[in-house]
Write a structure and sequence with these properties.
Layout (H helix, E strand, L loop, with lengths): L11 E7 L10 H18 L7 E8 L5 H12 L5 E6 L9 E8 L2 H4 L1
Parallel strand pairs: 2-3
Antiparallel strand pairs: 1-4, 2-4
Helix pairs in contact: 1-2
């Protein structure tokens, strides 16, 4: 999927990523979760934000059996931030996708300019 991060007038950012890279080997769900969050952090940084600005995440897992590893990795990265969160099982595009995450962040205007 192409990298997507959009800034709006009120600096709310939506970002939806997966961990697949061209030619990359399949990763475990916890590792994919960290890779996705790294991509989200990079997109937020490009708009003047950071992970601390995330207020909501939505996690989609291809198999509900992965929920614990995904939730553990999410907690390692967002535990101190505590954004609202939803985790659901969904059919993802491609068998190599184990997790996709959508993040919403409020980037303060002072950092976004």
């Amino acid at each position: 999927m192409p990298r997507r991060a959009l800034g709006a007038a009120h600096r709310r950012v939506w970002h939806h990523r997966d961990a697949r890279r061209p030619g990359a080997r399949r990763r475990r769900s916890g590792g994919q979760t960290h890779a996705v969050i790294d991509k989200i952090a990079g997109a937020l940084q490009s708009l003047g934000g950071r992970l601390d600005d995330v207020v909501r995440t939505r996690i989609y897992v291809s198999n509900l059996a992965h929920w614990e590893a995904v939730a553990r990795a999410h907690g390692e990265r967002f535990g101190a931030i505590q954004p609202a969160n939803t985790l659901v099982e969904a059919r993802l595009v491609g068998s190599e996708y184990l997790v996709e995450i959508e993040a919403e962040a409020d980037v303060p205007d002072a950092r976004a300019e």
